[in-house]
Design brief:
This protein has about 170 residues and is mainly alpha-helical. The chain has helices at about 1-30, 50-60, 70-85, 85-95, 150-165, and strands at about 60-65, 95-100, 120.
Length: about 170
């Protein structure tokens, strides 16, 4: 009988600890609904104001991605963005990251209109970098899935600004 209860107890213990481990794992993953598919390992801020505050505090550039759920161009860009390891790593380590499905009241974030997808950078002095643009003259801040190397260059440019200008 003693052996039986010890066995039952250790099985119970195993069940409890694995449930606990799963709960802890879940807990850690929970806030990542903010990623909306752009990268679950990236820490995302919830609002533009929080992003500005974190950028200033941490001396990292803020990267703002405007997108909409039912926009096919946004979906295609999101997939390319999420699958690109270099982008994910830089976003995770060197940037304050925000993705928005609505416009902010800051008109500086829409210098050439409110279209999606649109990616803009704000430096730690809280200046929107209208000088970091994509490849398309009709929509300066848009990127397409094949533009990931160009986006990487722009991310590096945003990081260089901090070292050289600020």
């Amino acid at each position: 009988v003693m052996l039986h209860s010890t066995l039952a107890l250790s099985l119970l213990l195993i069940a409890v600890t694995s449930n606990l481990a799963m709960a802890i794992k879940k807990e850690k993953r929970a806030p990542q609904t903010l990623s909306r598919g752009w990268g679950d390992d990236i820490t995302w801020v919830q609002t533009y104001e929080e992003g500005l505050y974190q950028a200033k505090k941490s001396n990292k550039p803020l990267m703002v991605i405007h997108h909409l759920e039912d926009c096919q161009y946004c979906q295609a860009l999101k997939k390319a963005f999420a699958e690109n390891e270099e982008i994910q790593e830089m976003a995770q380590n060197n940037f304050i990251m925000l993705n928005l499905m609505h416009e902010t009241t800051d008109k500086n974030l829409s210098p050439d209109g409110q279209y999606v997808p649109r990616i803009m950078f704000v430096d730690p002095s809280l200046t929107v970098r209208a000088d970091i643009t994509g490849r398309y003259s009709n929509r300066l801040y848009t990127y397409e899935p094949q533009d990931m190397t160009f986006l990487i260059e722009n991310m590096k440019k945003a990081l260089r600004i901090i070292q050289t200008e600020l």
